[in-house]
Design a protein that fits this description.
The chain is an alpha/beta fold. It is 41% helix and 19% strand. The chain is built from 27 helices and 34 strands. The longest helix is centred in the N-terminal third of the chain and has 29 residues, at 124-152. 1,4-dihydronicotinamide adenine dinucleotide is lined by residues 165-169, 192, 194-195, 224-225, 228-229, 232, 243-245, 248, 251-252, 267-268, 300, 347, 350, 397, 399.
């Protein structure tokens, strides 16, 4: 026992271990051996098994089942059976169930926190003060959405059985983020926790029983990646929600292509942490601690690219070094520890190999000199200096307690470096100047931005990424849509139109220079452009007469069009009012040329009445979206955080690829292009393959409507070939596709994990009220949540 004098001399912390007796008793009651939780019961413990270890000691904690496709099938059947009654309950009845779960979680808070710490290695301070309270908060918040769903989401229904796959860094929290909204919306779930950390999910299964949740509403299947893959592949699963590595996210995107399964992906990140020279430096240093040394850096949104303004760089790095030396690394059950071990020796090896790569490439690794426990998966925290934007440790997710630091000179350079990544999950911005901070927040391409703060989470705010960090949101109203579907989209008939053989044979192809006055060109960068192939294709009327020639667009033309669309940033930065004005002007010009357009529609087989109807509907649709351009407001979320404003912005994606159906060629085209444009996207549009001339007529209107060059590009030709180029293009951020090749488009989109909306071969009724409005606007935008603190 140290003397009072020696304590005062060293001013060191004593140990303060949290007891784990009740968790060990719980494990003993289960013989530390678990089956799956299916249909309200734990299954037998026979069959393939996985061992689960305590990362702090390497000791075995328990054994769980390694689920087979058969186990997954049994769980999906149980969930499908439960869906029949669960989805029919009133919102109020479901709300009471979610509320009961929240109450039971709170009752067992201490137990869950200790179990999480034993299983994952995160410190008890974090599991007790952050993870578990947020878990309860998610169930309370979503009890509210269950209550309100019928009124606030009228016209939407639950999806069915949701397959949910979660990682090991926030095991119980990720479970709550997925299960709470799914259940509130009326779905049932089969959830697979990560192989390293399945125990809190199994404890949660017990809580569901205790709280009286009907059997089969929640099913937990333990296992590894193969179990996850079997869940993704199951035909009766209506939705997959995945959080984990970008690599597996891509596999799942490809695997679910054409399945009709709804998909949300929350993937990796390499988030910028930007410190301007007028920041409160001590607060920013604490920010780094909370950002990259929180949870041992095993955080998808950790600010692992530290960008510091040049004039304060040396000072900031010195402060960071001093602060790092104070971090205490050790037994995570000790309440005075800042950091525990990594989750598994595999992760230690992965992290160390990335550190070695960083050093090999010339980086300097500044490591804390703290002593590490002899046993367990401990690593010393650190940070890299002497790295460039192309260094591996600046580009790749290390998923350990390491940050890589670089300097920048100007706000422009900061924005450029911040966005110099394939990811777009989060950003943390530090400046005492509100103008500088908000400007940076607006410019960074990330789903969540924290100003003078970091790693703030709440059930009322959406969380999720831009670019290769995935798509879909968790939390908030925006996240709730991920577990619902619009009713009108589920009852669409199959499309009767087919593109096969429309560009029939090479004899339909003609050099574009022939019949020059009848050959419509492509429209790229505000100019008519000859197709790169030099060829055009014959557009025939239904009676087989030649109506004209359309440019035979190819890969190169799509690339040029995307480049033009990227350059047309004036459109995105125009005020919403200005965009509305241009769209109204477009309608005015269409109205002035109504006769020509009706004539074109008649030529292609429409009766005079049908042509007039399509023209009128198209005019109305342009007006409709011109009206919406300055009205699709964001929100201020009511997060559970004091003196914080959380602004949810509806931001454009950037370049959108739009592939039109053959039905209603004019109306469908404006129905797709206008919401995208109204929200500030620039577009590359592939018009109806069989009736492209109406689109090429349309660009004459664009010329006279003050639409900035490159905002609206049109490439005619073989729809599916062109669509595939759009799907594969890394600069195309979102793709809407109508046609028979939905499977191919979804699979091809896996490259940059763009957001897709495919018709699945179904035909929209473009005249119906459903073919315009909120669904289109929502899918033409992505939500960025900006957290702004206020007060001294
Ligand atoms: P992972 O992506 O392989 O695992 C996440 C979850 O997906 C686990 O439940 C796993 O069993 C499951 N899974 C694996 N393969 C699957 C498949 N083919 N189909 C369906 N489910 C599958 O991540 P892992 O290997 O545990 O960690 C590797 C790296 O991934 C980490 O070092 C880190 O960089 C990153 N990662 C990122 C996370 C994030 O939240 N962004 C979370 C976990 C890991």
């Amino acid at each position: 026992m140290p003397s009072v004098t020696s304590i005062l001399e060293s001013m060191d912390y004593g140990t303060s271990p949290e007891s784990s007796t009740h968790v060990k008793d719980w494990l003993a009651r289960h013989d530390a051996n678990f089956g799956h939780f299916i249909g309200g019961k734990f299954t037998s413990t026979k069959g393939a098994r996985l061992d689960v270890f305590n990362p702090a000691t390497g000791d075995k904690l328990a054994t769980v089942a390694n689920g087979t496709a058969g186990d997954v099938g049994a769980a999906v059947s149980a969930a499908a059976k439960a869906f029949k009654t669960w989805s029919k309950l009133s919102g109020h009845a479901r709300a009471k169930h979610l509320y009961a779960i929240a109450r039971h979680i709170q009752k067992r808070e201490r137990f869950l926190a200790v179990l999480e710490t034993l299983d994952n290695g995160k410190t008890i301070r974090e599991s007790r003060d952050i993870d578990v309270p947020l878990v309860a908060r998610h169930f309370y918040h979503h009890a509210g959405w269950a209550e309100l769903r019928e009124t606030e989401f009228a016209g939407f229904s639950p999806l069915g059985v949701c397959g949910q796959i979660i990682p090991w860094n926030f095991p119980l929290l990720m479970l709550a983020w997925k299960i709470a909204p799914a259940l509130a919306a009326g779905n049932t779930v089969v959830l697979k926790p990560a192989e390293f950390t399945p125990l809190t999910a199994l404890a949660f299964a017990e809580i569901c029983t205790e709280a009286g949740l009907p059997d089969g509403v929640v099913n937990i299947i333990t296992g590894d990646g193969d179990t996850g893959a079997a869940l993704v592949a199951h035909k009766d699963v209506a939705k997959i929600a995945f959080t984990g590595s970008t690599e597996v996210g891509r596999i799942i995107r490809k695997q679910t292509a054409a399945s009709g399964k709804k998909l949300s992906l929350e993937l990796g990140g390499k988030s910028p942490f930007v410190v301007f020279d007028d920041a409160d430096l001590d607060a920013a240093v604490e920010g780094v601690v909370d950002s990259v040394w929180f949870n041992q850096g095993q955080v998808c949104c950790a600010g692992t690219r530290l960008l510091v303004q040049e004039s304060i760089y040396e000072r900031f790095i010195a402060k960071l070094k001093t602060r790092m030396e104070k971090l205490r690394v050790g037994d995570p059950l000790d309440k005075s520890m800042d950091m525990g071990p990594l989750v598994d020796p595999v992760q230690v090896a992965r992290v160390k190999s990335l550190l070695a790569k960083g050093v090999e490439e010339g980086g300097t690794l500044n490591s804390a000199s703290c002593a590490l426990p002899e046993k367990g998966n401990y690593v010393a925290p650190g940070f890299f200096t002497d790295v460039g934007s192309a260094s591996t440790v600046m580009r790749e997710e290390i998923f350990g307690p390491y940050v890589s630091a670089m300097s920048f000179r100007t706000p422009d350079e900061a924005a450029m470096l911040a966005n110099h990544t394939a990811y777009g999950l989060a950003a943390s911005i530090w400046s005492e100047n509100i103008n500088v901070a908000l400007d940076a927040a607006a410019r960074v391409k990330a789903g969540v931005v924290w100003i003078n703060s970091t790693n703030l989470f709440d059930a009322a705010a959406g969380f999720g990424g831009y670019k290769e960090s995935g798509f879909g949101r968790e939390g908030g109203r925006e996240g709730f849509y991920e577990y619902l579907q619009a009713d009108w989209l589920t009852t669409l008939p199959a499309s009767k139109s087919s593109n096969s053989n429309i560009i029939a044979t090479t004899d339909a192809l003609q050099p574009a220079s022939m019949e020059i006055d009848r050959t419509a060109k492509l429209y790229i960068g505000g100019k008519q452009a000859r197709p790169d192939s030099g060829y055009s294709y014959a557009v025939k009327t239904p009676k087989g007469k030649l109506a004209g020639l359309a440019g035979l667009g190819s890969r190169k033309d799509i690339r040029n069009a995307v480049e033009a669309a990227l350059k047309a940033s004036a459109w995105a930065s125009a005020t919403a009012h200005n965009r509305a004005q241009v769209l109204y002007f477009l309608a005015e010009n269409l109205s002035a040329r109504a006769g020509d357009f009706e004539q074109r529609l008649r030529e292609m087989g429409a009766t005079p009445a049908a042509a007039r109807r399509e023209l009128r509907a198209s005019l109305q649709r342009i007006f409709f979206y011109a009206a919406w351009a300055d009205k699709y407001d964001g929100r201020i979320h009511s997060t559970n955080a004091k003196r914080q404003i959380t602004l949810a912005f509806n931001e454009p994606f950037g370049v959108m690829g739009l592939v039109c159906p053959n039905e209603a060629p004019l109306l469908a085209m404006v129905s797709l292009a206008l919401p995208a444009l109204a929200m500030g996207n620039t577009v590359v549009l592939v018009p109806s393959q069989s009736q492209p001339l109406i689109a090429t007529d349309f660009y004459q209107l664009l010329d006279t409507s003050d639409m900035p060059a490159g905002a609206f590009n049109i490439v005619t030709g073989p729809s599916d070939e062109l669509a595939k180029v759009l799907a594969e293009h890394d600069e195309v951020a979102a793709l809407w596709y109508h046609g028979e090749g939905s499977a191919m488009m979804e699979a091809a989109s896996a490259g940059n994990l763009k957001s897709t909306w495919v018709s699945g071969g179904k035909a929209f009724d473009w005249y119906s009220a459903n073919a315009q409005g909120a669904e289109f606007l929502r899918r033409a935008t992505q939500t960025k949540n900006i957290w702004i603190p206020y007060g001294e």
